[in-house]
Design a protein that fits this description.
Layout (H helix, E strand, L loop, with lengths): L7 H7 L5 H7 L1 H14 L2 H6 L31 E3 L5 E3 L4 E4 L6 E4 L5 E6 L3 E4 L4 E3 L4 E4 L5 E6 L12 E8 L2 E6 L7 E5 L2 H11 L5 E8 L2 E8 L2 E6 L5 E5 L2 E5 L2 E2 L17 H35 L6 E2 L2 E2 L22 H12 L4 H6 L1 H7 L1
Parallel strand pairs: 8-13
Antiparallel strand pairs: 1-2, 2-3, 3-4, 4-5, 5-6, 6-7, 8-9, 9-10, 10-11, 11-12, 13-14, 14-15, 15-18, 16-17, 19-20
Helix pairs in contact: 1-7, 1-9, 2-6, 2-7, 3-7, 5-6, 6-7
């Protein structure tokens, strides 16, 4: 089981694409300091202070980074989504999303095949462990393998009653995007595209503050959804169908949030380290981090045009396979272990939270937990 909100395990993984942008925007001087610390930590002086050798090709680094290989040093990529005969979609990490065609219903199944969450009606969320809650607006649901599900609702502010139903799903993993239309019609249809990185970038850049729910827990007996609102994590969604809150001239149903609840993600819910599913997850997190950052810095109108020229994260995906020269698959620096990305903020987002955390961060980096999550 992962740790509580605020520890290194949680922050590095989740805040890679959550914690960075708003802090970067509000504290640029701290970001410069973080970059300097990053450079010095992976430089000769600090390596010697820590008793570790500086970067050398083919040798473990920091006492925990694995030897570079095709499966680890370049963030491997592969097929992200598979459309099944019944129209459901299976992700690279083994999750299955199924729109049943009944009562605007869709379900999420874990890698073990067990149902974790059912969404139905206007919309109600039933977790397999018995927790029940509602949401109203179109929202994102992110799975532990990096899959992002955009649940579109027909929420209409003019109705003033907060009621809506799921009308469609956009599911992305790796370079693959599945669109499930007609969730509320009784006859949902699924189509596949291969523009997921571009779609996700536009999706996040044009609305970086959308309500987003992150799946955690340990399986069907312990399901957790962590909410992010306005770019900030605010807690685990608690039991209760929610309560009406005023939003301008209308009302919406809001969740009961437990700000003190511990949140974790069991390793069984994540892709194996170094697998193609893991590579898709890392690339997706970095893609989302950059898009969300640009969206908050430039606003919806300016973010997407800037992103189109700022990076080419999907450039090495050809037919869903990872394409790269071996020269690009070595640990040439922090961002090097995730592939070729040209923005320092890609690595910075998770690092900032680590540097701000309590305790000795050098010790945390060397811990066995850090070995699992750094690369």
């Amino acid at each position: 089981m992962g740790g509580a909100i605020g520890n290194f395990n949680y922050n590095f993984n989740l805040n890679l694409n959550l914690g960075g942008p708003s802090f970067i925007q509000s504290s640029p001087s701290s970001c410069v300091g973080a970059l300097d610390l990053l450079n010095r930590f992976f430089g000769q002086d600090m390596m010697q202070q820590g008793g570790y050798a500086p970067f050398q090709r083919g040798t473990p680094q920091c006492g925990c980074l694995p030897t570079p290989s095709v499966n680890q040093s370049g963030a491997p990529a592969g097929q992200g989504l598979t459309q099944n005969d019944d129209g459901s979609v299976t992700t690279a990490g083994g999750y299955r999303i199924d729109a049943t065609g009944s009562s605007s219903e869709w379900k999420i199944y874990g890698p073990d095949g067990e149902q974790l969450t059912r969404v139905w009606g206007d919309p109600h969320v039933d977790e397999a462990d018995g927790t029940k809650w509602d949401f109203t607006k179109s929202s994102d649901f992110v799975l532990p393998d990096g899959t992002r599900i955009f649940a579109k609702t027909n929420y209409d502010p003019e109705k003033k009653n907060g009621q809506s139903v799921t009308t469609g799903l956009e599911i992305t993993n790796g370079a693959d995007r599945a669109t499930i239309d007609g969730v509320n019609t009784g006859k949902p249809t699924t189509t596949m595209n291969h523009d997921a990185y571009e779609w996700r970038a536009a999706h996040l850049a044009t609305d970086p503050n959308r309500d987003t729910f992150y799946l955690g827990g340990s399986g069907k007996d312990n399901v957790q959804w962590l909410r992010q609102r306005d770019g900030q994590i605010d807690g685990v969604v608690g039991d209760g169908r929610g309560h009406k809150v005023s939003a301008g001239n209308h009302q919406i149903y809001d969740q009961n949030i437990d700000k003190d609840a511990q949140f974790g993600i069991d390793p069984s819910l994540r892709p194996p380290l170094g697998s193609r599913a893991w590579g898709n997850m890392v690339r997706g997190q970095l893609n989302d981090t950059q898009a969300q950052l640009w969206g908050q810095l430039l606003g919806p109108a300016g973010a997407w045009p800037a992103l189109q020229t700022a990076y080419g994260i999907h450039a090495d995906h050809i037919n869903g396979e990872f394409q790269s020269d071996l020269r690009d698959m070595l640990f040439g620096g922090w961002a090097g272990c995730f592939g070729n990305f040209n923005s320092p903020f890609n690595a910075l987002s998770g690092l900032i939270d680590l540097l701000r955390s309590d305790g000795d961060w050098r010790r945390q980096l060397r811990s066995s937990q850090a070995q699992t999550y750094i690369c």
